Amino acid sequence: MGDEEKRNRAITARRQHLKSVMLQIAATELEKEEGRREAEKQNYLSEHCPPLHLPGSMSEVQELCRQLHAKIDAAEEEKYDMEVKVQKSTKELEDMNQKLFDLRGKFKRPPLRRVRMSADAMLKALLGSKHKVCMDLRANLKQVKKEDTEKERDLRDVGDWRKNIEEKSGMEGRKKMFETES
């Protein structure tokens, strides 16, 4: 138990050391990133915004204002063009998403459950309570009665088979057989 406890402590200490080293490296990377961003910002400002000299006379100040207004107008036009492009691309994206939904089905269809419902209840659900339709299928079936054929009647009427044989024996019995068959 002592060796295992020592090993667990060593593993935990190593993990803690690795975490602290990783955090130190991340902190130095963040500082470098912040310095890089500040340098990029200064470079951009020096390129795009020349230092401002304020002229002494009124006509020079008016000329400077005209130049600034021209630059503002150009920037506004560029901004408007960019907004129009963004709106156009968002509309295209929405159209494409709509087509995608149409192609693969907008909603997940729930699994259908089997419902036991009588024909009357189904018609009532479909047509509403206004329509009174009775779908008693058994009542609508035609009643078919079997017609008794003579042979079946003979089979039913035959009581004792011995009497039947005696009746058919002899010439008269055979004569009766031929008469019934033809």
From TrEMBL:
Coiled coil feature spans: 23-106
GO terms assigned for molecular function: actin binding
GO cellular component, one term: troponin complex
Biological process according to GO: cardiac muscle contraction; skeletal muscle contraction
Keywords: Acetylation, Actin-binding, Coiled coil, Muscle protein
Keyword flag rRNA-binding: no
Superkingdom per UniProt: Eukaryota
UniProt xrefs under Pfam families: Troponin (PF00992)
Function text: Troponin I is the inhibitory subunit of troponin, the thin filament regulatory complex which confers calcium-sensitivity to striated muscle actomyosin ATPase activity.
Quaternary data: Binds to actin and tropomyosin.
Stated family: Belongs to the troponin I family.
Name of the protein in question: Troponin I, cardiac muscle
